[in-house]
Each structure stands twice: as structure tokens, then as C-alpha cells.
Prior knowledge:
It catalyses: uridine(38/39/40) in tRNA = pseudouridine(38/39/40) in tRNA. GO terms for molecular function: RNA binding; tRNA pseudouridine(38-40) synthase activity. It is an enzyme of class 5 (isomerase). Its EC number is 5.4.99.12. The protein has 252 residues and is α+β, with helices and mostly antiparallel strands. The chain folds into two domains: 2-98, 2-Layer Sandwich (Alpha-Beta Plaits); 109-249, 2-Layer Sandwich (Alpha-Beta Plaits), CATH 3.30.70. The chain is built from five helices and ten strands; from the N terminus they run βαββαβββαβββααβ. Strands 1, 2, 3, 4, 5, 6, 7, 8, 9 and 10 form a ten-stranded mixed beta sheet that branches. α3 (142-149) packs across α4 (200-212). The chain is globular. The protein starts with a strand and ends with a strand.
Amino acid sequence: MSNIKLKLQYDGTNYSGWQIQPKAATVEKVVTDCIERIFQEKIKLVGATRTDAGVHALGQTANFKTSRIDKMPSERQLLRSLNCLLPKDISVLEVETVDENFHSRFDAKGKIYKYQIWSSSVPSPFFYRYCWKIRYNPPLDLEAMNFAGKFLKGEKDFTSFQGAGCDAKTSVRRIDRVEFKNNGNILEIWIEGSGFLKYMVRNIVGTLVNIGRGLTSPEQMEHIINAKDRKAAGETAPAQGLYLMEVTYKKL
């Protein structure tokens, strides 16, 4: 039995998220179909995280096991074959044979997300599917947003940022980094942590934007966290601005 680890990137615009769903186009289903076509057997593809509908990924990790050693091409050949079969909005960046006990989800030690906000008053026909276009005038107060971001760091109960229908056993997570970067007309919000609840990153971004707009004071972020109430936080930021950048692991 071989255990194969994949690193993937995809444009989530046309997909109902990562996880297979009945009568819906999902990234997991498309990739699984291509793998099964190559190996000519049913496989179970395990993703490191289940990105939501419309969310993109530049560093999703997944793994699958195969008993068809006779059909096993080299890692380079498998990479090439998958990318020939996959649609243009999904690609495999890396293929690696790993220990049979490796699990892309349970062995992950952290995840890095980036959220993009279009910060120009002039809309772009090229970035509207990949950023959140918000009202520009007046510009967001980055100093206030950065101050509020400091309250998010550390191990905390993030119930206030948990989306409805979340099946996590605990709402406690650890955030290690909240960083803001200006990249031309795009404001990037980078969030790194041990793991994230359903809609957690997008709910955090929506709250930070309220603070940047002056609708909520930066000091209020601490009270929002302590409230452990979704109603205390801001709106859910749109899916198209969110990117899974990397899943981190201990050295394999």
C-alpha cells in the first residue's frame, strides 16, 4: 500500500468548496475522479482542510492510499498525468510518497490564510473574483485594525467567530500571526494559527473591517472575543477574498 501526498492549488470560484457533496461540483470530487482514472481503483482523498464554496487555495494538502503498485507511475509522471487530466482551475504542485501513517488533516500543525481586500476606489474587472471590494472613502484605518489584531493572538475560545453548523468538538484555537500588507491596490490580511473553525477567518476579517471603518473601536475586539457570542462580531467577509496559502507539518 502506497500513501501519496499532494500539494494543490485551485481557483474556488466555480466550486461548492472542497468536500464532496451530492449533485455539486467540488474540488475533492474532481481530483478524486482524475486519480481513480489513473490508478483504476476507488480511492479516498483526504484534504487537510475543507475550504468553503468560492474559497481559493495556493497550498492545500491532500493524501490518498493505493494498492495498485502495478499502476504506480513515478512521482514526476503522476504530477504530469494529473495536471493533464485536471481542469485549468485546479493544479497539482507537488507529488510525494510518504509514510503509510501520514494523514494530511490530523498531522497538520498549522494553517496560513490570506484575505484580499480591493482598496482602490476604481473597481477592477480582473480582481473582482479574487478580492472583497469595499467602500473606499474614507480608507480603512489600518492602525486601528492592527491594534485590534493583537487581541486575537494566543490560545482563546473563538466562539464569537464560529459559523453556524460548525461540528468542531471545541472552539478553542491558537492564532500565532495577524499581519496586514499593502500590495498595490490590494490590502492583504494574513492569519496563521493551529487551526480554524467554520467561517472563522472570514468572520474575523469582517470584524476587522468594521474596526477599520470606525464602526467598532479596536479595543472592542477583546470584548467581542470574551462574549463568546457570534452576534457580537462583524459580518462574514465574502468567500472570494480568502486563500488557503499553506498547511504546515512537522518534518515528515
